[in-house]
Fold this protein.
Amino acid sequence: MAAAAAAAVGGPQPPQAEVPAPGLALDKAATAAHLKAALSRPDNRAGAEELQALLERVLSAERPLAAAADGEEAAAAGGGGGPGAAEEEALEWCKCLLAGGGGYDEFCAAVRAYDPAALCGLVWTANFVAYRCRTCGISPCMSLCAECFHQGDHTGHDFNMFRSQAGGACDCGDSNVMRESGFCKRHQIKSSSNIPCVPKDLLMMSEFVLPRFIFCLIQYLREGYNEPAADVPSEKDLNKVLQLLEPQISFLEDLTKMGGAMRSVLTQVLTNQQNYKDLTSGLGENACARKSHEKYLIALKSSGLTYPEDKLVYGIQEPSAGASTLAVQGFASAAGTLGQLDSSDEEDQDGSQGLGKRKRVKLSSNTKDQSIMDVLKHKSFLEELLFWTIKYEFPQKMVTFLLNMLPDQEYKVAFTKTFVQHYAFIMKTLKKSHESDTMSNRIVHISVQLFSNEELARQVTEECQLLDIMVTVLLYMMESCLIKSELQDEENSLHVVVNCGEALLKNNTYWPLVSDFINILSHQSVAKRFLEDHGLLVTWMNFVSFFQGMNLNKRELNEHVEFESQTYYAAFAAELEACAQPMWGLLSHCKVRETQEYTRNVVRYCLEALQDWFDAINFVDEPAPNQVTFHLPLHRYYAMFLSKAVKCQELDLDSVLPDQEMLMKLMIHPLQIQASLAEIHSNMWVRNGLQIKGQAMTYVQSHFCNSMIDPDIYLLQVCASRLDPDYFISSVFERFKVVDLLTMASQHQNTVLDAEHERSMLEGALTFLVILLSLRLHLGMSDDEILRAEMVAQLCMNDRTHSSLLDLIPENPNPKSGIIPGSYSFESVLSAVADFKAPVFEPGGSMQQGMYTPKAEVWDHEFDPVMVILRTVYRRDVQSAMDRYTAFLKQSGKFPGNPWPPYKKRTPLHPSYKGLMRLLHCKTLHIVLFTLLYKILMDHQNLSEHVLCMVLYLIELGLENSAEEESDEEASACGPERCHDSWFPGSNLVSNMRHFINYVRVRVPETAPEVKRDSLASTSSDSLGSLQSSRRPKVLQRENSGTAQVFSLVAERRKKFQEIINRNSSEANQVVRPKTSSKWSAPGSAPQLTTAILEIKESILSLLIKLHHKLSGKQNSYYPPWLDDIEILIQPEIPKYSHGDGITAVERILLKAALQSRMNKRIIEEICRKVTPPVPPKKITAAEKKTLDKEERRQKARERQQKLLAEFASRQKSFMETAMDVDSPESDIPMEITTAEPQVSEAVYDCVICGQSGPSSEDRPTGLVVLLQASSVLGQCRDNVEPKKLPISEEEQIYPWDTCAAVHDVRLSLLQRYFKDSSCLLAVSIGWEGGVYVQTCGHTLHIDCHKSYMESLRNDQVLQGFSVDKGEFTCPLCRQFANSVLPCYPGSNVENNLWQRPSNKSIKDLIKEVEELQGRPGAFPSETNLSKEMESVMKDIKNTTQKKYRDYSKTPGSPDNDFLFMYSVARTNLELELIHRGGNLCSGGASAAGKRSCLNQLFHVLALHMRLYSIDSEYNPWRKLTQLLEEMSSQLGNEEQQPEVPILYHDVTSLLLIQILMMPQPLHKDHFTCIVKVLFTLLYTQGLVALSVKCNEEDRSAWKHTGALKKNTCDAEKSYEVLLSFVISELSKGKLYHEEGTQECATIIPVAWSPESMEKYLQEFCLPFLRITSLLQHHLFGEDLPSCQEEEEFSVLSSCLGLLPTFYQTEHPFISASCLDWPVPAFDIISQWCFEINSFTERHAEQGKALLIQESKWKLPHLLQLPENYNTIFQYYHRKTCSVCTKVPKDPAVCLVCGTFVCLKGLCCKQQSYCECVLHSQNCGAGTGIFLLINASVIIIIRGHRFCLWGSVYLDAHGEEDRDLRRGKPLYICKERYKVLEQQWISHTFDHINKRWGPHYNGL
């Protein structure tokens, strides 16, 4: 055999590989056994040599393939028999040799028995479904396979299911990664103790064979790899080689699965250096081996692996030397580490990259250790295998094999070291790869298994310099995409930043390396080494500085940008992943005092890096205008470590802070960001496009905020607490560009800001100050308080679902930090602050999710507008929170008006930050507050309520945080401070509040009103001035202090900055660049500024009191509350003041001011005592009036709008009730189709398009808007009571033979087998499957209007959700979906009434009339518009359903088919209406459908068409029913022709419809009743026959006997006993009853029949017919249905139909037989009917019997019952193979109607361009399909050519859907939702209720 195979390969074989000697062609097993024996001998050298020779031959037979793979002989590789066969052969040999002569399978089993592994270690690839349990995990990456998870006990744990992105492995049994309590049953026992030792000879052969086999594989990989000419090996070639290697690698993979024993052999083979040396040295005489070795060297060289930079990475052998070298020269050392790469990486050399390399420095030579050359030599198979794995870009099979070996501890260590050794090479391959995404996933798949284990990570860190390697590799990776920074000083900047447009950043190529780094930093032992190693910290800070200032935005001032770059995504992702996450990882290890040293290290190097950065960008004191970068990772590192130091490590803050100058610099850029945010929101950056708004949003967004805005604000808080407060405040206003606005003058010029932006920028500045002063996130709040505050803020904006809360609350990004979302604290805080609102359902409405809403006390005490403002991404959310707050106050009766944001008490400040409060007590701020209050009072422009609100908030903050006691007050009042600045005497707000300011000098434009007059008319009177003069001499302000108003802020800042610089640096002259103040003076073109002196005479207190008057609109409205109630001063926390508007706020502040000092209290009282004289009406009233008018107008407008909205809503509601709502029988709004008003001569219709009313005429017919749809709902009725369940195991399957559709199908085909086809087609109804259901919204339109409407829709370019070409449209009035128009038959209502009057004709006459009327041929009316429309609608109806549901005749296209189809349409619609009414008519009344029913019109159309087919009077069943036929025998004598269907086999309801539709319309009521009476006799007889067949022989003979006795009584024809006995005696003549006792036992019901049970059976048998008939009568004659109890339904319906004689009394129990009214003597006609049966049962007794027993009791249709827990469905179906293509589908789905399993979108199961779901929806639901998508837990509806996502019926514990199972939490069935779904299916309202439809193009 081997010889033959080798010969087959003879062609391309190189000469050295001789054909194996014929001797070897013996049976392989024998050879193997012989060799094994030889090797077992003590002296086994001979055996070993023999084996080597054999292997040499067998395995070299594969070698020619390499040639094929090179592409020279592509044909051979393409699957020529040769190579494949040789490979198979080699593998066969290996298997035989391993088994040593035995069977391979037995060998496998034997090895498995010795498996000591207590680990699962199952490896999976991407998209595998695994589990993660946070309760059991030690490492955040822990994962379990489904089997281990379900076998462990995780009840009540915090676990979730997830789809693996990169692949992974099961950690069950590994106590390093998870707690042992979570192990599954299989891995709980440490089994190594009781497993016997492996017998030596079992694996002996393996030890010899495997090294050769692996070497062979490596040679293969060497030869297959061609160093590409271009940069990248063509994927094709690599894949080709890999395909050829598939069997070999699979073989190795199978070996690993044999368990621990085999794995340890493999480990020995892979790590044994001697083996490797012997086999691969390439020194042997074998030319082939030599060639392969050369290829290997070339590959090594081309990978740049023999180049010095790599030596460096691995060469740092003694850490001490390494560390010192690294720390040599800050940045230079890090960049220089990679100094000599330039030669190796040619492809990086395009010109643009040159910039970043500018600073590279050659390394000092002492690290260049020559021994590094050897370090790179691969020393074992494992190392070279990994090398090739990387070279081939991580083929999945190889990765799986390498990972499968991990349970072997020795291998794990060796492999990890090898992996680290190749780390730099991995990075380079990754950078060049085209498939970087796939490759990234594979890399992480491996590394996460290695680095999640703390012990292993520590070992590798110590032994292989893992940290050095990682940091250096990251640094090198980023170096390839650096550009010059343009921040600040574009020309001279020396700073380089990453270019966010590069693929490396755009595609996140760096993430595998960063994620490894984050992973190892999560281990304490590793992180500590990092934090202790100064050299590493320096390198890392250099790495971080690459991101400092990236993605710089420059404000566009003229044109809009041409191209909006989207690089900001990359920038934010890079900062978060590469800078912030490692930072959080490090922070998590700095939690206790002992770690202070680490913090000091980080802070120190961070500050150094920052200093370098300031130098590099040439920063002095002013930021460059119109630039902003959101990326300052160095600032944020510094801030976060400071925060940790103070919070957890008790470090003294000042010991880690730099000097003042550095603080000033530090504050500039974060402050610039805050100002830019305000600018962006003021639309000043609008020319930069939408992306700048995107950046502003991302910066505060929940995933980024605690790594971005929070540290920034904290850093500003630190700076503010340490810098001079006046300097800080003036900086803020200058940055926000509103300095010029802060003037007392009513007009000013702003040189840096347009007037329209002023207001929002001022609001921004004040809001920023409020946030800065009141936020305590890092200033003393505990973690739980922070969580609570975050949660309250999110809940106040909107009600939230549990998952969105989890998502919105910024968690510590490092998973190990312990604050895990969903953790205990999260749930407990949530239950404390929020109430759960369970999901509600409005039928036809959107389905809601479970929501959390804030508790009342949260609104009352915890609503914090500041936190809300900080956390809102969209400004509208702030408004939304305020609206909700307002609503709460209104509802709880706390405050009726429009409230202001409440003032919230803050957590006490941590002592280290006390200095922050100095901002509130500095003159600059007080001047600003005073000025703004004054301006607001004077109604200057550009001020808003928001400004006032913030001003008051700041004043209140100042009062709350005032340090000064009453006693010091007097002393300080006359201290030297007073002369320092003429505005305010001191810096304490409490005392400054009462300080009166008399005159202010301002600079104003000459045009200002102040220039013309000396003083303002609206200043306060002299009396107030005199109050002040009594205390202190009036000082007219000095000139410079007057001008201070304009310039003080800026000038002050300059001065302060100058002082500090001079103090700090000797070379002040060179630091401070001379600045002209030209920037601040007005440009020449502006009008000249002139100085004016204003008389003010106000203090902050007096301004507040006047504001109170102004806000309340009344003079003297403020009255100090303590004058009435002195208590108020003692116990100040008064709820009355906690909620309210501005008036309340002013009152609250005045109260607090009075509380703080007696002096203030006195002054407030004095001000209030002086009754303010009436103000000259001229000035202030106008302004006040303007404001008031404005308010009033606004109020009125608001009320108008409310009214309009309310009116609109009520209109809409009433409209919805008439038009849309499927489930509201209450709303009785009469529709247009009225039938009960006798005075109207003709029905009048309104056209909803042209609006005209009028009758429908032959020329201009009106039509109803209808939707025609094929339906199989009826066919889904089943006869058994308990609902079918969705199968969730192989045993449970659903078989459709008990459905209504199947039963009817069987019946029809049975009839067609034995009877004449045309007669069969009249004996049944079709349409149980694929019947056409017609529904209308009740609106009518002219048919010609409709045509023009359709034309306009066709020309409409807008993309509609429906297809106009298929005739689809939406009703022009109610927008309900429709696809046809049903013409209304012109006719009067009076005529109806005439016809309905009962006449007293006898039944005989009526029967004659009916027969005559039916006999008249129905000529089609002349060609009118109406008749054309009738024809076209009939065509529509036919085309609605598929051909297979219309054609049941054996002769295709026979008219009988159409006839059957037409009356079946009527039947389908009646049956469906019955189902909508709940399956019976007990409720009576006109149903909801009745108002909008189109059955009347439908009958006209059907009747018109059916009258075209006249049934031969010969065959008309009417005759058989009403006449005795003489020649019965002759009919049957005709053997060869098939007989007609016996009348007793006919379906009576079908007969009814045929009879009625054959009559000329409109129908006479008498004729209708006559037809019903006749048919009832037949129905009753059928019931008796069925009864007789169901019971057994004794019962039959007994009844035959009792009935015979009563036969001659007077009403024998109305006694069921007599009739039954007669039926039995008649049928006994035939063979019907004969075959008793054989297999028919099944149908016998062993019940003893009592008269009651027989009566009940007969009533139930007849009820379905009575129900349909009553409905029909209701629609034809418009009579209402009576309501009744279920037990009286029979009698009520029969009297309603006129079957019961009216005089019939119901004293004695009701007997159904009394309804009979025989047209001819009963016994004659019955015997005639029975004769037909007998003659049939002569030959086919069994079938005859089957046809007689009809199932009358169908249960209502239901969807399949679903299990409680979604997991049961998911586990069974997501791995289930498709029955068509036997693959596991990518998107499995299951049909909820019949339980069929299908592939969604699967091309595998496509038939004639229809995918499987679409196909199934046509077969199962005639175009409607309801599918549960297994992998997404959602339900998808297919309706014809459209589909929509319906939603999910499975919700989690918080009432939420989990679409796509992203969260993977356990899901439970929501019964209400499932009911809604079922209801929509049964009522056919999917089209109306679900709004988002799209075409599926048959691709689902």
